[in-house]
Specification:
2 domains, 10 strands, TIM Barrel, binds flavin mononucleotide
């Protein structure tokens, strides 16, 4: 069963990996993308905003729909919906540390409750023809490291792939990701394991694959404003040198294309508001960008945003 087209996978990121972002990532060669996390309950109640996150029809490349929830019946309905929407894989979010999510027994809270986790994965796997994956963390906290146990349960309950982010839920995004836990999971299950955490340079991926034996790598924050990380990672994994760093003109061209896609898919009002953070990520580190950032934060239209970028030239 083919789960990804190559070993470089885009992480699901709420508020980031929408249709426009996925289109950019696919253009740069990514082997699998994910939606933002989608509430299974929201799907169950037919919430319009929730369902819009599953607007993936006609997208190029492989797309995992990531859902979060903890009630078997609702997970089953959400899984079938993801299949109808055109996803190529269904992922169960078992790593989100946000209290708003975990207080409802969703996300990383599933790792604290292995029997509930088992119910959720079984419900998903038995309700859809799609391969099911789970995205887990190292554990809930330093005194509850159970990624290996959880991974074995996932495999037993029908999961076809496991992504491991090498931090505990309690750590959030702080500290360094522990890749050794990825290696432990790799040696404990017979399904592909995807390694995740702290890949910011192309050679980090090569090191993670070598150190852990994972089947593929998942890139998150490193791609924000920097889809070239996908292209360069692919080059390095093929044994080539990374491509030349993008010049200012190329950065602006890609950023404006991305922002244009946000406007196309969400309309100018929402699109430009959501584009502001992306615009700032694209110009990070460019000399003279501080003044432009302030203007970007106030831009209302595509034209105004384009003018902000022109100020950097
Ligand atoms: C802005 C943001 C949003 C995220 N949203 C999700 C999400 O919806 N689902 C999920 O499983 N992980 C989410 N994550 C976690 C990432 O998928 C990834 O596991 C984490 O960032 C570690 O990878 P990195 O070090 O490459 O960034 C999010 C991370 C960030 C920074």
């Amino acid at each position: 069963m083919k789960l990804f087209d190559n070993k470089v996978i885009l992480a699901p990121m709420a508020g980031v990996t929408d249709k426009a972002f996925r289109e950019v990532a696919v253009k740069f060669g990514v082997g699998l993308t994910f939606t933002e996390m989608v509430s299974a309950k929201g799907i169950y109640y037919n919430d319009k905003k929730t369902k819009s996150l599953l607007d993936i029809k006609d997208e190029k490349g492989r797309i995992g729909a990531q859902i979060f929830g903890h009630e078997a019946q609702i997970i089953s309905i959400a899984a079938r919906c993801a299949e109808e929407c055109g996803a190529t894989l269904l992922d169960i979010n078992s790593g989100c540390p946000t209290p708003k999510v975990t207080k409802n027994n969703d996300g990383a809270a599933l790792m604290k409750n292995p029997s509930l986790f088992a119910e959720v994965v079984s419900a998903a796997a038995s309700s859809t023809k799609l391969p099911v994956s789970v995205k887990i963390r190292k554990g809930w906290s330093d005194d509850n490291i159970n990624a290996v146990e959880i991974a074995k349960i996932a495999e037993r309950c029908g999961a076809s792939m496991i992504t491991v982010h090498g931090r505990t839920a309690a750590a959030g995004y702080s500290g360094k990701a522990d890749w050794s836990i990825i290696k432990k999971v790799v040696s404990s299950v017979n399904i592909p394991v995807v390694g995740n955490g702290d890949i910011f340079k192309p050679h980090h991926s090569k090191a993670m694959l070598k150190e852990t034996g994972c089947a593929a790598v998942m890139l998150g924050r490193g791609v924000l404003g920097n889809p070239w990380l996908i292209r360069d990672t692919l080059f390095v994994l093929e044994g080539k040198e990374p491509g030349p760093p993008p010049g200012l003109h190329e950065k602006i061209e890609v950023a404006l294309w991305h922002i244009g896609l946000l406007v196309k898919y969400k309309g100018e009002y929402i699109g430009i508001r959501e584009a502001r953070k992306h615009a700032m990520w694209y110009i990070k580190g460019i000399p003279g960008s501080a003044r432009v950032r302030n203007l970007m934060a106030k831009a209302q239209t595509y034209e105004e945003m384009a003018k902000c970028f022109e100020l950097l030239l």
